[in-house]
Amino acid sequence: MSSCDKIDADENGNFITFSGVSGKWENCAALADHTHRVMLEKYTGCHCPNCPRADVTINTEMETFGDKLVVLAIHDGIDRFSEPFEGYTDLRSEVGKTWSQYFKIQPQGYPCALLSRQMENGATQYEFPTDDLSTKIETIINQAPLVALAVDCNRSGNAATITAS
C-alpha cells in the first residue's frame, strides 16, 4: 500500500475496490469479522544469556495463542551480543539495526520485546519476554483491529492471481 484513502461503504454496506492488473473494478461485501493478531518482535543476539529463557516463554505464548501471535526474532547487530559464533550464520541485518536504533532497544538490553509496537504517552512500551506476557497479549487481541486485510491467491499453471481487499 503506497498510499491510502478512506473509502466509506455505500448504503448497502459494500465497498468499491480496485483489483487486478487489468484495471477491473468490482464490488465486495464489507468484512466485519477479523481476527486481531499480535506481533511480538524479540530483539536478540547470539551471545544473549537470557534469550534461551525468553524463548521458552515465547514458545509457551505461541502454544496458547496459536496464529493470533506472530513472532519475529531480530538480530540487530548493534553490540557484541549480536556477533555470530564462528562458523555460524550471521543473522544481523541493516533493517534490524535500523529498527533497533529507532525503537531505542539497546538501552533496554537483550532480550527486549515489542508487542504490536504499542505506545503509551508517545513512548514505546518495552516488554521483557522472560516474563509472562499472556495478559498483555490477550488485551491486544481483544481490541478491535485497526486494519482488516484479506488476501486471496489463485494459481493456474505458471500464473498466479493475488487479490488483497
| Amount of helix | 10-25%
Number of extended strands: 8
Mean pLDDT: 76
Using only CA atoms, what is the Rg? 20 Å
Order of strands, main sheet, comes to 4-3-5-6
Q: Can you tell me the residue ranges where pLDDT is under 50 for at least 5 consecutive residues?
A: 1-6, 17-32
Report the β-strand fraction as a percent range: 25-35%
Largest sheet: 4 strands, mixed
Total number of helices: 3
Distance between the termini: 11 Å
Structure classification: alpha+beta
Morphology: globular
Topology as H/E string? Answer: EEEHEHEEHEE
What does this structure look like?
The chain is α+β, with helices and mostly antiparallel strands. The protein is built from 3 helices and 8 strands; from the N terminus they run E-E-E-H-E-H-E-E-H-E-E. The chain has helices spanning 51-65, 94-102, 134-141; strands at 14-19, 24-29, 38-44, 69-75, 112-120, 123-127, 151-156, 159-164. Strands 4-3-5-6 form a 4-stranded mixed sheet, sandwiched between helices. A two-stranded antiparallel ribbon has the order 1-2. It has a two-stranded antiparallel sheet with strand order 7-8. Strand 5 (112-120) and strand 6 form a beta hairpin. Residues 1-6 and 17-32 have low confidence and may be disordered.
